[in-house]
Amino acid sequence: MIRATFLGTGTSQGVPVIGCECLVCKSPQARDKRLRSSLFVAYDETHLVIDAGPDFRQQMLRAGEQRLDAILLTHEHNDHVAGLDDVRPFNFRQHRDMPILAEPRVLSEITTRFAYAFAEVPYPGAPRFNRIPIALDQPFFVGKQPITPIRVWHGQMPVLGFRLDELTYITDAKSISEEELEKIRGTKVLILNALRQEPHSTHLHLDAAIELAQEVGAEQTYFTHISHSLGTYQCVSEMLPEGCFLAYDGLTIMI
Q: Residues with Cβ < 8 Å from 196, sequence gap 6 or more?
């Protein structure tokens, strides 16, 4: 059994966007408030997070989780990594470095951005990371769970999605090759980005995301990485086909 909680479902600016007066940003509904995209996953004795953006501290406090065993990173954009400094309470509580699993390119960028954490003599209280490279051509393990990396393309940028048994998580994707799509087929629950109504150069828009979900044939698809341009939760939910759902912050699903 896998328990997955959407820590955040928003795009890089979150929702509401600073200074915006649109219908979505002014909505009083809780499901129209979106922190930056991140997913908490629990299975067996293992707890992990996919991406740790600038809202990571707030998200973990809201989720009330006491333990974290690893963080998987899809790519190095700021809305997916800027919160890594806030692993410190887990370092202190668990008395160990936090495993960070990502492609070598992303780990190199993390080393640069958080250079103080990798100093020869780090200052007291600095976050502690155990950098673990992910190879695209082979599954890896976090705890007892094999995880399959999936190559997707964020425009011209290579990004990773992840499949954990019957759950597949893909964000910041515009295109996926047929070879990589084969890794997703048969998944029961697909989590997929759907940025807005209109086509976008580096993200799937809603119609393209629905089309891809139907091609994969998952029993349930949840859309995430949502901008204020998509529309309100209520309006968009009413137009989705059977088996497709708009995710929202705090939603928990069991697989």
A: 203, 205, 206, 227, 229, 230
Query: What is the value of pTM for the model shown?
Result: 0.97
Q: Indicate the CATH number of 2-254 among 3.90.1170.20, 3.30.70.270, 3.60.15.10, 3.40.50.300.
A: 3.60.15.10
Q: Do the Cβ atoms of 53 and 38 come closer than 8 Å?
A: yes
Q: Which two tokens stand for residue 92?
A: 């202190």
Strands 98-102 and 2-8 turn out to be unpaired
Which tens digits make up the pLDDT trace of 109-155? 999 999 999 998 888 899 999 999 999 999 999 999 999 999 999 99
- pLDDT tens readout for residues 58-71: 999 999 999 999 99
Residues 154/203, Cβ–Cβ less than 8 Å: yes
Give the separation between CA 248 and CA 7, rounded to whole angstroms.
Answer: 9
Domain ranges in the chain are 2-254
Sheet holding 244-246, edge to edge: 140-142, 145-154, 157-164, 167-170, 189-193, 220-224, 244-246
